[in-house]
């Protein structure tokens, strides 16, 4: 039983208008409803109301994680840097990683994720195949030195993450653990009333394979998603593949240098020579971990820098500026992989498959006709590094890809053995042979999920909480509180609510009806009860569901029954 909370004593201030810097609906509602208060860029204080909402989200996620068979634990956010050096991520996380030093000059990190810590724990506990499989999870604060925190709770420097890690005997049993988490995530987003779509994804700095994100398709999302309307293909732009236009067929011809005055772009070159852009090869220049890299790709395509970074296992990857291009000796606008020395060449598979491409001559105002991979030039590595765009052909069918914005809510992927090997998570199998555990990783950002819930569940008046996530089940509006009949009815209602599992917020403030009703709509609890002389004269309490415009008068003795009947 929980005593109703009276707003006259509740630490809560609402706003009529959202601050100008709040652009996303969720950010506006968070501030207007008094759920959070900004402390600094990417850092927020949660008020009692906001913290109740966060706990409800956590509870929902916890229910489904426990249902899946995962076991909850707690790992430290402050971790010795040695663990991160063993995994190699002290370098790969770069400037995003917060680093601190204690009074004895020992180095630590504020963890942005917990693969190292969970692996160290498992290493000390896992000994036999009988200990596996197992999945462990936690709710813990994460820290990332984000260069551009944005969108309220969408991108933070400190945030709460539910992260889970599975440990399995082999890849086959990992499939089962992965499937269980995927199903748990599907249930979580369904229950949270957020339509999340699973899409193929890049694993980023964490590594691994068979990676999927759960994306809430939303115009305010910062992720770009490629979808095929003709089949179920969906992928993050960082991961998406496509079928490029086939190369123009011809027999290999002899290289020939031609004058191309003032031609510096692929579009200019195509027009000047009267050819298609897919008949050209262009050079794109990068500094990769301080070393120059020449990327060759067909002229009608663009480089996917995430694919390139993963291919080269790069920590830092930046396009070269004009000064760097000059220092390297490349000729911007007329560069070619032919005859290059002292610079690494990486090629997209599109140029390997094409015949008689036109490329730069490494001389200003000149290009070479009929370049062919293998005969005239080669690369140190050839791979799919092309960026998928709207209009490209789907890799699975004849449909054309479409681009949608989306908000990442969860990520599931198969880590494999990289962390287990680095942190010695080993066990003896049935034959007594030492084996390395195979890991999976599964994350949900709790703050971001809360923001997505508001994005997906609001109207022009405010929040419309799903019943399972509402900070309070009932919002009681008291009008004419000094009226003896109203005071008596309120006392009876509060007593009956206190004997149930229902949690109520009672607006007993000395305010006029307008602000009270506006706040009730803004805060968005599932049920609004109005105790007033008018309602009592009509035979009871005014009952209204937040998702409806209709109200009704319910006898006081029937209110609890009506609430329980009306909640979803």
Provide a descriptive summary of the structure in words.
The protein has 16 helices and 32 strands. It has 568 residues and is α+β, with helices and mostly antiparallel strands. It has three domains: 51-240 and 403-454, 2-Layer Sandwich (BirA Bifunctional Protein, domain 2); 256-383, YbaK protein; 464-566, 3-Layer(aba) Sandwich (Rossmann fold), CATH 3.40.50. The strands form eight sheets. Strands 4, 8, 9, 10, 11, 12, 13, 22 and 25 form a nine-stranded mixed β-sheet that branches.
Give a brief outline of the structure.
By secondary structure, this protein is of the alpha+beta class.
State the share of residues found in helices, binned by percent: 25-40%
* Count of all domains: 3
- Measured by DSSP, the beta-strand proportion falls in 25-35%
Task: Tell me what the CATH architecture of the largest domain is.
Answer: 2-Layer Sandwich
Low-pLDDT parts are none
Number of helices: 16
CATH fold-type name of the largest domain:
BirA Bifunctional Protein, domain 2
Radius of gyration: 30 Å
């Amino acid at each position: 039983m929980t005593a109703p909370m009276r707003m006259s004593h509740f630490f809560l201030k609402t706003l009529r208008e959202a601050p100008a810097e709040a652009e996303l609906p969720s950010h506006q509602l968070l501030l207007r409803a008094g759920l959070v208060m900004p402390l600094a860029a990417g850092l927020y204080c949660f008020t009692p109301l906001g913290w109740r909402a966060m706990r409800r989200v956590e509870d929902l996620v916890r229910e489904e994680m426990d249902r899946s068979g995962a076991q909850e634990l707690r790992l430290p956010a402050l971790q010795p840097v040695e663990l991160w050096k063993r995994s190699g991520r002290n370098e790969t996380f770069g400037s995003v990683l917060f680093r601190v030093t204690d009074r004895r000059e020992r180095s630590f990190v504020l963890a942005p994720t917990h693969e190292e810590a969970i692996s160290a724990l498992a290493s000390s506990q896992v000994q036999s195949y009988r200990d596996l499989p197992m999945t462990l999870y936690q709710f813990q604060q994460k820290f990332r030195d984000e260069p551009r925190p944005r969108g309220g709770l969408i991108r933070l420097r400190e945030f709460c993450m539910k992260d889970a890690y599975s440990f399995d005997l082999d890849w086959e049993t990992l499939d089962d653990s992965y499937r269980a988490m995927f199903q748990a995530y599907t249930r979580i987003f369904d229950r949270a009333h957020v339509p999340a779509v699973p899409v193929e994804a890049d694993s980023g700095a964490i590594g691994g394979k068979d990676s999927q994100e759960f994306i809430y398709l939303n115009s305010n999302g910062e992720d770009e998603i490629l979808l095929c309307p003709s089949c179920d293909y969906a992928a993050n732009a960082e991961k998406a593949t496509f079928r490029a236009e086939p190369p123009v067929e011809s027999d290999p011809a002899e290289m020939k240098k031609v004058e191309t005055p003032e031609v510096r772009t692929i579009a200019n070159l195509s027009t000047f020579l009267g050819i298609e852009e897919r008949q050209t090869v262009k050079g794109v220049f990068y500094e990769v971990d301080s070393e120059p890299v020449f990327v060759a790709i067909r002229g009608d395509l663009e480089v996917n820098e995430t694919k390139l970074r993963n291919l080269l296992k790069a920590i830092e990857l930046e396009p070269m500026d004009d000064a760097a291009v000059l220092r390297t000796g490349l000729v911007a606008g007329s560069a070619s992989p032919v005859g290059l020395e002292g610079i690494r060449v990486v090629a997209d598979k599109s140029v390997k498959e094409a015949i008689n491409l036109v490329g730069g001559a490494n001389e200003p105002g000149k290009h070479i006709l009929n370049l062919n991979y293998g005969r005239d030039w080669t690369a140190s590595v050839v791979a799919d590094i092309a960026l998928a765009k709207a209009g490209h052909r789907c890799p699975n069918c004849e449909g054309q890809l479409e681009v949608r914005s989306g908000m990442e809510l969860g990520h599931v992927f198969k880590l494999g053995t990289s962390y287990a090997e680095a942190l010695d998570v080993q066990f003896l199998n049935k034959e007594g042979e030492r084996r390395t555990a195979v890991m999976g990783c599964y994350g949900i950002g709790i703050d971001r999920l809360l923001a997505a819930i508001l994005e997906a569940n609001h109207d022009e008046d405010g929040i419309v909480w799903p019943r399972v996530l509402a900070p309070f089940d009932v919002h009681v509006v008291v009008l004419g509180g000094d009226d003896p009949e109203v005071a008596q009815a309120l006392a009876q209602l509060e007593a009956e609510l206190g004997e149930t599992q229902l949690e109520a917020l009672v607006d007993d403030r000395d305010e006029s009806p307008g602000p009270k009703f506006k706040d009730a709509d803004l805060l968005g609890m599932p049920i609004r009860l109005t105790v007033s002389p008018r309602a009592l004269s009509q035979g009871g309490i005014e009952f209204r569901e937040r998702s409806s415009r209709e109200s009704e008068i319910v006898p006081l003795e029937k209110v609890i029954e009506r609430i329980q009947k009306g909640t979803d």
